[in-house]
Protein 1
Amino acid sequence: MGEVARGGCCPPMDLFRSEPMQLVQLIIPIESAHRTVSYLGDLALLQFKDLNADKSPFQRTYATQIKRCGEMARRLRFFKEQMSKAGVSPKYSTTPIDVNIDDLDVKLAEIETELTEMNANGEKLQRSYNELVEYKLVLQKAGEFFHSAQSRALEQQREYESRQLSGESVETPLLQDQVDFLPAHELSGDSKQVKLGFLAGLVPREKSMVFERILFRATRGNVFLRQATVENPVIDPVSGDKIEKNVFVVFYAGEKAKSKILKICDAFGANRYPFAEELGKQAQMIREVSGKLAELKTTIDAGLLHRENLLNTIGAKFEQWDFLVRKEKSIHHTLNMLSLDVTKKCLVAEGWSPVFATKQIQDALHRAAFDSNSQVNAIFQVLHTRELPPTYFRTNKFTSSFQGIIDSYGVAKYQEANPTVYTVVTFPFLFAVMFGDWGHGICLLLAALYFIIREKKLSSQKLDDITEMTFGGRYVILLMALFSIYTGFIYNEFFSVPFEIFGPSAYECRDLSCRYTKPLDWDATTVGLIKVRDTYPFGVDPVWHGSRSELPFLNSLKMKMSILLGVAQMNLGIIMSYFNAKFFRNCVNVWFQFIPQMIFLNSLFGYLSLLIIVKWCTGSQADLYHILIYMFLSPTDELGENQLFPGQKNLQLVLLLLAFVSVPWMLIPKPFILKKQHEARHGAESYTPLESTDESLLVESNHDSHGHEEFEFSEVFVHQLIHTIEFVLGAVSNTASYLRLWALSLAHSELSSVFYEKVLILAWGYNNVIILIVGLIVFIFATVGVLLVMETLSAFLHALRLHWVEFQNKFYEGDGYKFHPFSFSLQDDEE
């Protein structure tokens, strides 16, 4: 359907209708299939259909190749994880890599084996190093226990002997702490020989108190425990985490106590290390451990250097390898969607492509056959089908964000009128009506220009969600800012402050004493104003701001302007439905949808818009609320002082009659006409001749084929009834919905005025630098946080709603599906 552009491979971009699509069939020789799919992926203009939907992934032809590509992708993810841990970032390279996928598979397997061995060896060495570090700490701290205890025991021995020689009567105590510090030594005198065993190690500091308590209870107090704090956290050999630990030495008597202590140490994760009693052996062990630590440190450093070099080598080619593996996997995934013909020598493919891409696809097929040294070229043919084609709009970086706004509501049906053409202008304009302030607009403009100027750098970076969303809509923000500056000039507001930009005010103070002062200093609330010049040439006269009539005047202006804009946009939506009906040759929708809808909407709210314009032009004092209400309640009454032009009463009666007639006009005829068309179509199809052999390639689909479906008149009538009621009620509610333009514009203006007067001006009045700086900071944060962030988001969402609900529901079905061509540039999203 629609005109097909001719005379070039790429016709001019047309956003109003989606690209004409065609269902094509490719018959590709096996030997050139891989290269053909690769070239079509580079072209990105063909959406393949899955011809093997009834088969599981494991039953398809290229399942083995996909499994191999998955294994290669796993290795690459392993490399990326190792590089991330080592702080090595992959280097982006634009030079193409010339490597066979089989060679790459072997190379990746070898690198994985080497890297795995290096990691295992490194972990073993690091664990040994951590154990030696702990061992050295045990030797140092426990050695201090034994050295101090032995010194004290020798002192006690000498004191005991001196007392024996002097003949003093010394009572031997039952328990002496010093005895515990002389393991396996025999004390002189009548003391009993005591032999104690001991264990030394490290225990986590957070568990040390519980560890001591459990030891005491398990052995019934028959142990002696000494602990010393390790100043710096140590790396645990088992977990690899840095943990604060204490060195402990447990003295015990008997094997039974020893077995209990060993179990408790295992339960608390306490690492035990061998320890000698003799001070000489302790010093020798410390020297040996220090030597081993130095050797291990050298070995670990050399291993880390070798591993870093290997990871840098991987990082230099990682992006190229990753792209090649992803490309290979997507090619085989696409080949699995193709079906084998009966000879097992060709693959048959079907898919959607734009009509303009026919020559490009054929060139890619010929090039693939030539590069593959295939003796047979691939066959390209167009299939005739009733299936609804996908929707494809060619967009650029400017229009893509606007198209995304429409697609978020629903993808356009094939060749349906696209609202994006008008949304490019109407969306930022309606936003600006609610956000009208040229000071705030300049701030938005600067933000948009920042993203636009740095778009090349930012597009290649990984951004967070909010920044990425803002960057994607940078051109929407640009137009929103420009339109906000324009409406700000109309409202004459710069951070709520008016300026005489386009000339002097048309009004002056009525009292001569204040006539020549600045407009902002007029005491308009008590003195009043008088018009002395021609009307202010553009926008709102600055004298209105601050006057006692400001709020009534601006309210009336913005409310009436909102109704005019709303009725205009709704009329545009209905006119778009006419172009849709004309394009699809649907005369029923023209006569029984478009015409009665236009009559109904304009008989009521089009007439209201006319009254608003006439009142503005004539300066009449007529009450438009009274006119519109009594147009329904008392249509035959005289208008009196509310009459705006001659013949207004008769015009209202005609419009009221047309509005009432248009409702059954929309409701009744269409279902009967559709039923008659269905019966005529079925009568013609009852005697359809047999298909010729030339039409054997016709593809049937249930997607858009209603030829043999039963026509349910009741369902059609109910649907039309719902549609009619929805339009009639929606005409009222949608018009009222456009009053949000007035409400949000008023809220934005008042908030801006409050921040200016109650923060900035108030701080200025104190004549204090500190208060002024604080006031300025509060004003900036309030302006940015509330007016430039929250108000921007609020106005954006309301403008979005006006387009999605009030505008698009007049003509936009949005029940299509997007064209997703096979493309290597989309591999990241697919992955």
Protein 2
Amino acid sequence: MISRSYTNLLDLASGNFPVMGRERRRLPRVMTVPGNVSEFDEDQAYSVSSDNPSSVSSDRMIIVANRLPLKAEKRNGSWSFSWDQDSLYLQLKDGLPEDMEILYVGSLSVDVDSQEQDDVAQILLDKFKCVPTFFPPDLQSKFYDGFCKRQLWPLFHYMLPFSADHGGRFDRSLWEAYVATNKLFFQKVIEVINPDDDFVWIHDYHLMVLPTFLRRRFNRIRMGFFLHSPFPSSEIYRSLPVREEILKALLNSDLIGFHTFDYARHFLTCCSRMLGLEYQSKRGYIGLEYYGRTVGIKIMPVGINMGRIQSVMRYSEEEGKVTELRNRFQGKTVLLGIDDMDIFKGINLKLLAMEQMLRQHSNWRGRAVLVQIVNPARGKGVDVDEIRGEIEESCRRINGEFGKPGYQPIIYIDTPVSINEINAYYHIAECVVVTAVRDGMNLTPYEYIVCRQGLLGSESDFSGPKKSMLVASEFIGCSPSLSGAIRVNPWNVEATGEALNEALSMSDAEKQLRHEKHFRYVSTHDVAYWSRSFLQDLERICVDHFKKRCWGMGISFGFRVVALDPNFRKLSIPCIVSDYKRAKSRAILLDYDGTLMPQNSINKAPSQEVLNFLDALCEDKKNSIFIVSGRGRESLGKWFTPCKNIGIAAEHGYFLRWSGNEEWETCGQNSDFGWMQIVEPVMKQYTESTDGSSIEIKESALVWQYRDADPGFGSLQAKEMLEHLESVLANEPVAVKSGHYIVEVKPQGVSKGSVSEKIFSSMAEKGKPVDFVLCIGDDRSDEDMFEAIGNAMSKRLLCDNALVFACTVGQKPSKAKYYLDDTTEVTSMLESLAEASEASNFSMRELDDAL
């Protein structure tokens, strides 16, 4: 079994993903790839998808979470399992299609002896469609109590590890354990998955690198991820040493879900600042373009299971719990708090706010009671013992100051409380108070609202009045959805105390209106609505999965899938050389930066090798070679002086020189540059206020660059500048355009596309219609050239049977149909064409000599 043997953690963390040994076991379904799981080789990870048909035709959902939605107990030597009806992962199936098969992959909350793991796994698979993941105790401790609870959990709740005693320093071995555990979950998923048919839905921060493992094996897998915790701001998240690894792993999902826009916004900002990615909203959907794939961003707070709460309410009523508590707190006004024992729940701040209310509003002394129920801590979190001591001390102090015989203002319950009893407390509470300083969602207010509404269709007296009040921290995920709650900053104890008084003093009519508003939302946005909406968006985002060609690239957590049009393919040098030899009139258009010269090169001048190849190509009388660049004509003219017959189109084609022996001509329709006197002061103003920006002054254009500025502020300034310039230049013959970290103002009608069409037209007029076109570029401006080639064909500027090779540099979405990986491959191809030309010229000279 996997649990008995796991590989070197350093290998895992470094991206060397070896196959873990496992014993052969029965599988629930026919696998897409023939053979046993143990026979899978990781080299298959780069395959596009299975070539074999799926064993089933209907969709299936595989839900992967740290914990299975099961309760487990061992009695008299035998195991007993049952569904955990309170588990979100079990409840979410209510929103999925009835005919959709659901499979769960996760771990159990109890330890299972290694000798029993096979039998337990088979029982859970047969009876519950659950696939358990087992791992050694030492790995479990490092994974959950270590990296999850001591690294990710505090950081995602805005707690930085300032010292070893508070938060703990980053421990590489814990990260390795996290990766190893995610690997084990991956091994379990691939035992049962049919990648062409199944959806995979991964949950929460425990499994954030799992998407990379799955995408690496199955490039077209339909996979969603939902984060149930907050996602911190970029200023906090950037302190994580493995920040980029986790971001890139999440981006291997098709859809990433968050509870609130704030969490999504923080994630998108991290992607922008750390990975340079841009997002956009189309028809209400937010998407990130990532190597040809659109990664969807879903914003949808989770809801509650109405049926489950109604059932619990019925049991509470039958047991008489509500009556018992009503009698116990008769004549008292009850405020209720229900929280986990966690430093981020703000329990002590709630107690201090209660103390403040009693001190400032003496009329509540002897009447107002705060019942604080504390659930056990979910793990060995940070500083739990310390915060527990503070809470108990506050309870003693407040009860000592304001308590009297028969009255205690604070009822502190830190023993297990049944769900039926909690429901009864909801019934009698006048107000629920949540003062968490940071919480992913928190469904306590939702449950309270439904309980105060009472049993649907019941006339029982215990169904409670149709009114409720909430005092909710503005730092919890459910706060934006509860517009009728009194929102507070829990750190402001005085203001929170006043909010408690306001909630208790509010008129019944106002409480009724607020309650009705909340209940309408909560009852319609339940857990079924949430899961149904997530699946719909996942289906929508994956609809084009099998229409594109996909392949994997990159190693370790830099792995990603490139998805491109099926007609987009790598340019074959032997094929183009063959077509090149047959052509009689060739036009070769080459971009400079990023095509002939690497973008990151310090020395921007072309190498002697490139000049030799270009000169050899220019010697061939069948060729017309042009450098088409955004650079100025002075630098380009100087660099390419050795190539006498090469043509140059400078500043995106505004200036054109047909060869080194000819003069520069102007292609722009307007030579009046008076508009520059308007533009330059505006750009200077933005440059002064935007650190890291600069102005590039060309003869025909002005460019404002903000590549080195803060991404967010630079983008904001660029947008404002664009609107500003469009306004002041409305009557000028110029075009204002935004590009990748630039805003450019240039004469209208000037582009690489227009100068390309001019070259083709001129060659046709000279009786040399082009029958071979090679056009290579790497950025957005070059897309105009690729588009112009298609237009030239329709305008009959090229021969009817012209061979066209529009090629972009790098594997990315483009209007070109071909690609080369980098400038080295471009140089290699030019060398091959130059050799073909030299061989042809040599043969012609031999023929001339013979004649």
Protein 3
Amino acid sequence: MDSGENPVDLGTLGSPEDSTDPFLSSIFYCDFPDLPPWSLQPPRPPAQFQRRQLLLSEDMRAAQARVGCATAGRRHLVKVYYLNEEQKWDDLGMGHVSSTYVDRLQGMALLVQSECDGSVILESKINQDTSYQKQQGTLIIWSDAEDHGLALSFQEATSCCEIWEDICRIQGKDPCDEITRDLLEQLEEQRFDQIPEPGIMIELPTCEPSKLQQIADIVTSVLPSPISKERLALILQNENYIRQLLQLFRVCEDLNDVEGLRHLHEIIKGILYLNKLSLFEILFSDECIMDVVGCLEYDPALDQPQKHREFLTHNAKFKEVVPITDCELRQKIHQTYRAQYIYDILLPAPSIFEESFLSTLSTFIFFNKVEIVNMLQEDENFLPEVFAQLSDNSTDDNKRRELMFFCKEFCSFSQTLQPQNKDALFQTLTKLGILPALKIAMQRNDLQVRSAATDIFTYLVEYSPSMIRAFVMEEAQQLESGDLLINVVIEQIVGDADPELGGALHLAELLRSLLDPDNMSLAPNKCERSEFLNFFYKHCMHNFIAPLLTITAEDKCESDDILKFDKNCLNNYQTAQLLTLILELLTFCVQHHTYYIKNYILSKDLLRRVLIVMKSKHTFLTLCAIRLMRRMIGLKDELFNRYIIKGNLFEPVVNAFLSNGTRYNMLNSAVIEMFEYIRVENIKSLVAHIIEKFYETLESIQYVQTFKGLKIKYEQEKDRQSQIRNNLHNILYNKIFRRSAAKVLVKKEEKHFGENAEDDKAAVSPLGSDFQECYDKCIAVTTPEENEDTTGLPKRTSGGLKYTTPFAAGAGNGTGNPHCNRAVALVDYPDDEDEEKEEETPPRKKPHISS
């Protein structure tokens, strides 16, 4: 495709002819080519980029060796374009881009490595003064230090957004903006940089006490200008100026020169705000760090200097729980701690205009933590020795406390790792036995040890609940139920001595996370949800609800009346708090474990026990009980409804509602909402039960229409049922009556037929065998089957009586009558005509008798 076929407007500042600025004409007013097909062989880059590839590859390998895979960032497929001298975009190739820290550039950079051979296509440092622009959702465009236009074309918009967020985070900008820096400000700075004015040159005076104010003014004046900041950073780095300033600090402190010390405070703070990694390496070195802290003690805003050096020297002790043989690792730990202390304690919180001043310092601390974690993980002896001592029951309490503190901080550092590296780390910790070590630590009497173990357990649960569940189920096959990790956690919840139950609340949230079906895997060959829930309800649930069952035991509660209960223990605040935790988790189980918790509640008669706690003076506990019952009703499970009706479990709710009186509070609202839900959803069995049992008591409540509405629903259902019964009675009556009537008619036909036959025999004399044969054929009587279905109407197949007989007078005098042959039907059925057609073959006629 021709590169100029579909130009893309990369700016909105006017046409290129209207501007003489090379930056605008080269970057924002150029024809960006349509993206060619994604081929596997990228074109060769220009010569100046080819010469740099080997060196950049070596630098990249060195940088990755230092910070590990975690610093490489996430990789995204892109094409790299370079603006040539003819203001056309050349395709440099296709590869994977990542935001990575590079030692050679001393900062974060955009690195593109070829998809084919891994060679470096592009390496561009993300500078604070570089203006990046995102366009069309898949393009990022900028100009490098030599004013060469560069562009990244992403295959996916999501990849472009992630890299754009990295750039904005490093520059301290809002990712919602599509330009990281004001273009007019950048162009003005570039023009100003090209003017050879003597005032733009930065020259620091010699380090003397009399020049400190001048030095402080210069350092603070360059902070608004990125170009000036770069130049000042180069001067400070190359001329060993920082060490001279720190030597001057010792002199001023010995002379008690307060004014000079305050100027040094402004100078050192300004150097930190230059936000340069090369300067951080000097400031945080072992020989300089304490003097830097000393300078920051003399804040002009404070009347007296703070004693931070004394704290770092005497209070902050570095303890090696297991000897660290790597000197570089030990130095890195010291450096990171002091840098973090300066960042958090000594430097003021930056304003919205200074958010980017310390971005590199936070990045410096971040990568130091990554290095520490990687170096500890690579040590073959350190971590195994730590967990060996933690798993040993004979380890001294003080030693165990230090080991747990180390593990807590180590897991905290691990949160900075990339997901892939974090997976490898936690898998290593699991193999080394961190979970058995935590179980031992949680059973110790030392509160600090238990607290640290809880924090580590939190990291593990947040990382992978499935890993904890798998360990517990595997553990259940080897140990008794009481020794399981989950039961140890439950024991810590139940036995928390804190009146506010701070630790119990935290552990209850972790237990809820383990019981949450949403984070349980459902593989074709393994259903984690069913396996773990079966395990929990069999081995652990009884331990969790044991306090509830103990407080509401049968010897304290009469079986006929669940309200007659000694409520002194329920009025204890700590007991009420514990029961609240239990009821909250039971409510969660009702919502998410429908089948398992239903069987458990019905088998243990658990709701009856729960409603006993409504006699407590603590309203929050009463509300928890109502919430559990409301959740059960919300399932619309008829088994739950029948269980509530059979146990008359609305009675304690109604009594609590009436005891609350006319107070408009959460208890009042919760009860009314529950009854309103039953009315709106028209749960018929519960509506009938409430009206029949409690309407006389609730009828007087008129400030809401809930109970009146329940009564209306009840009457409507009652009328409907009455109408159904009446209709059913009519249907059954009609069926039974018609059947009986049909039988009566059949009997009448038979009786009538019998009388006529006797009369005929008496009036007509036999005429011989031939006449008798003819007579028999002329008479056809069909009766209904006696074994017809009793639920249907009687069905007649033939309902008439047909016979042929002469008049007696005609027989006597020998005369014939034209009407001597006739058919008589006693009951006219619609199917008589069909049967008459079937019987149209008449018997042989008898000759008339003539005179």
Protein 4
Amino acid sequence: MKTSKKKESTRRPQENNAEGNNEEESELCPGFKDVDAFVKYGLGAVLSATKASAGLPQAGDDYDFYRSFPGFQEFCESQGDKLLHCMSQIMQHHGCRSHIRDQNKLTGVEERFDLVVDSNDVILERAGILLDEADGVNRSQNPVMPAGFQPPKIVVSSWNRKGSSSRSETFRLLHAKNVARPQLKFKEKVDNSNTPFVPKIFIKPNAVKPLPSYFSNKQIRKERPEDLDVPAALADFIHQQRTQEHVEDMFAHPYQYELDHLTVPESLLSKPEPQMYKPMAETKLSFIDSLDDLVTLNEKLCRLSEFAVDLEHHSYRSFLGLTCLMQISTREEDFIIDTLELRSEMYILNEAFTDPSIVKVFHGADSDIEWLQRDFGLYVVNLFDTHQASRALNLARHSLDHLLKQFCNVNSDKRYQLADWRIRPLPEEMIEYARADTHYLLYIYDCMRAQLLESNHGQPGLLQSVWNKSKDVSLKKYMKPIYTEESYLELQRKQKRSFNTQQLTTFRLLYAWRDKLARQEDESTGYVLPTHMMIKISEELPKEPQGIIACCNPVPPLVRQQVNELHLLVQQGREMPLLKAEVTLFGPHDTSRGSEIDRPQDTADGKPGLKPQKKNYGIQFFLIHYFTFLEEMETPADQESLSVAQTKARRIIESFENPFRMYLPSTGVHVNKNAKFDPSSKIFEISKRWKLQSIEQQQKEMEVKKKSTEEAKQQAKKLEVGEVTPKQSKKLMKSTEKAQKTEPSAKESFTPFDYAQSDLKVFDGSKAKDDTQFDPNRQAQGFRKKVKLYSAGNRSMSYLSGKSNRGFRHNWPKR
């Protein structure tokens, strides 16, 4: 016992009491009760060793000095051998190469370092595997999946773990690379053409206003330009000519009239009694994948007063997206419809979906309404959106998870939210996940209607507003993405990136290539070339195809296939002349981005303008009014009628800086020298146009100055007709000009001063006779001026040499 105690004390000095045999058997390892005690002791040992190593002499003069002592040298060698022996034992334990002591003296350090690095990799890899197994993620586990499909990939991440449970659940991303493309089985091919979306409806159940003839006549709808062997431009022209008379019908909502005249009955505006849902284990579930089952389901739905609907969508391997699953729940049973199999027959459900006496309950139906129109031609009349009701009640959150937790006390499982819903047959876990989205929705619908009435003191106003907002959601129309020459500018504005001419041209070409290939292959733009990779290529402008591959991690399959074509597009962008201008914002909230392409262009009437943009109407409005204002000021008719004050105001306005200077490049901009002198380049054309405009502006300013000086001379001659006025001093002239500036008068009320009534002997220095009578007409103009001049001091510079008038008494008028 004494020897065992000594061994225990050497292992753990802090434990002085001996433990019994039963306790020793329950220990993790000799001397340690559990993992925490072992980790705590290990961290303390590592910390003490680190501190001791930091106290050793550092490499340099100190180490060389201590190394000269034989005792220090022997100590270092003995400790070094012990460390190498310990490291070799650890490597042997993990199956690594452990010949760390028997090394060549010349290359021993490098070889030992390589051995340590390899051993660290092996040990850390094993530690990661053991941690995954302890966390419940076994890499060797093979989940049970249908034959022919790959097992699901398990993604371990921290943002999607549930914090309520002790053991964190991980997000399961179900996907399968071997899924056959469901688009190949569709009876009607997916229309990815660059034409507006035309509704698929051809039969209108529950119609108050009949369906237009364009939709009911199948012969007109079959005449599509895609079926003709003609060029694309001619096909678009033929399509426009054929559909010109049906334009209003083509793009109108088929149930616009019915929704506008829809009235909510009083029974739906009164307080309901919430009907409790059945447990999922006791509720019947039907999987609909045949036409007969779909017809039977439609007949059941037409006999009900309400049912809940939800959709599962896939958008990564399709340009427009695919609706893969539809869930419908009633009070008694649940239905799951395979919409990939019944895509062309889903229009049958329009009979129940458009019945105004049946309430269709959705949650967040903004996207669902558009997907139903795009894929099936289905429309919804009498919709109740629980998302809009949640907003009206000002709940903490508006998601379906929050509503399930608040009203049903159910924790929804969102592990399959990002699963690939094209998988067939569907695993049981995915079916249960899809079923739960609608199973509790009708009970939530009852509870929210009751809360809306209670929060508004029993008045139906708040509930009526939710019905109106839900009706607005059902009036939404699906809009197909249309490519235009300026579509890339919208994406660039969202990314908030400023490109030069070469980068912007490359970005435009890559955007067009991505859109064209995505439509042809029926793949999403994110699958063909993600936006962040496209921006990276546009910024770097790689010179070789390998540079394009290096900008993409991971490399998309279509990029790897067509990397040579992408390289040609990048080269085409690099050939553009380089011109980078500073981005000037028109205000603190302006997000528009001026580029080099948006340079002033000559319009049809020869006046300078701007190249029209799609969303810069405010700038164009300001510039057009500025030019019209300048043209009105430059007309000779206005120049003749301008007064002195108006001419001065005009000169002040002309002195302001030209607002078009913001479009000019700054002084530190790099411009290609060859492009400056090449007449065919855009830079040469722009610089020449601005030079001509600046010369014309200078000539106009010179003409205006000449005319103003001539007018001033003529006005002065008119004042001097019949009278010879003495030449005033410069000081007096400046003071009169200041007085005119401070008190400008209009042209109609201005009367020149009559010098015939003035006493001209004042300027000779002789004493003038004072008039005892006050003349308001004579002194009204210059009363303040005289006081300002004469009260400046005993001797003013404006006086001429003469007698001093001290003690002279003026006869001022009494107040």
